[in-house]
Design a protein that fits this description.
alpha+beta; PH-domain like; 2 domains; 4-stranded antiparallel beta sheet; 3-stranded antiparallel beta sheet; 5 helices; 57% helix; 19% strand
């Protein structure tokens, strides 16, 4: 069995969604600040807190490329957002606003789930090849693709291209680029299995 370390196939779509998710969470926190401000007896600490956290969430996507450990920073930010939503739901529940409390609880649970899923996706992934087929990582598990389902598999430089018989093409970015001899050996193995 041979394996190659790859960038998880779902990573590019997740990276495109990161700014949207953080921005929407920030807007939700700004609405929380407005809701607390408009209450009969506003809690000024929470108004300022939600206002600052909301602006930080909206600004996070613009600064996240500066972090050396981007995935860890994103996971921590996502967990803080989830924790604030979950604890904020208690505030609104105690102030007899059950709909807002339930909404915040659901958003907090959703953010915790998204944070865990992003953490899993940003972990090192491996594509494994053996005589039965190619094992690809999915969001939660692994998927075995048999050689009989493939037209062609080619490894060029840092890109593994998998051509399926159903006219789908999957391109995976290789993180640890093999040397010329390893690449040739892998391509010869792929050609022997596909034909």
């Amino acid at each position: 069995m041979q394996s190659l370390r790859i960038l998880h196939p779902n990573t590019p779509s997740r990276i495109r969604l990161l700014p949207v998710m953080h921005g929407l969470t920030g807007i939700l926190f700004l609405f929380n600040a407005i809701g607390i401000y408009r209450s009969p007896q506003p809690n000024w600490f929470l108004v300022v807190f939600f206002l600052v956290i909301g602006l930080l969430c909206i600004g996070f996507p613009f600064t996240m490329k500066r972090f050396k450990k981007f995935t860890e920073a994103n996971t921590v930010a996502r967990m803080i957002e989830a924790l604030i939503c979950l604890t904020g739901s208690l505030y609104f529940l105690s102030h007899l606003q059950p709909i807002t409390a339930i909404l915040l609880f659901l958003v907090g649970a959703g953010l915790a789930y998204v944070g865990w899923m992003e953490y899993r996706i940003f972990q090192p992934s491996y594509v494994k090849m053996d005589t039965t087929g190619i094992t690809l990582p999915t969001t939660f598990s692994k998927r075995l693709v048999g050689w009989n389902e493939l037209n062609n598999v080619i490894l060029r430089n840092d890109l593994l291209t998998i051509d399926f018989k159903n006219n789908k093409i999957l391109q995976l970015e290789i993180l640890d680029e093999p040397d010329k001899e390893q690449r040739e050996a892998l391509n010869n193995f792929f050609q022997s299995r596909v034909q």
